[in-house]
Amino acid sequence: MVNKVTLVGRLGRDPETRFTGGGMPVCTFSIATDESFKDKNGDRKKRTEWHRIIAWAKCAEIAQKYLKKGSLVFVDGRIQSREWEKDGEKHRSFEIVVNNFRMLGSKPNGDGKHEESVVGSEPEIADEEVPF
Q1: In a domain, 62, yes or no
Q2: Cα–Cα dist 54/67, whole Å
Q3: Positions of E strands within the chain
Q4: pTM (2 decimals)?
C-alpha cells in the first residue's frame, strides 16, 4: 500500500516551531495549491486548496530558518489524519507529514545561477512525543 503526497505551493504564513518533551523540533505551516479549470459556461475559474504541513527534526529546523510567508516549496510526504472530540462533536483533520521538501525560491549561489535546496528524512516519533 502507498501513502504518498507531492505538492508544490506557497506558504500562507510563516512556519511555527514547537518542541516535544524530549526536545525534538516540530514545525507546522500551511501551503496553498491552485487548480485552474473552465466552468460549464466556459469561464476560467481558479480554486485554492490549503494543506497543513508538519515537519520534524532536521526538516523542522530548516523550514523554520529558511521558509517565510509566500515561499514556494515542493513537499513530498504522507497524509495523516487526526480525530478529536469537542463539545460532544467529533472532528477530523488531515495533514501532510514531510518526508522531504525542496525550497523552490530563487536563492542565488556564487556563480549567478539559482539553486534549490533539498531537505529530507523523517525520524521515528512516538505518539507521546506529539506536542498537539
Answers
A1: yes
A2: 13
A3: 5-11, 16-19, 25-38, 44-56, 72-86, 89-108, 114-120
A4: 0.75
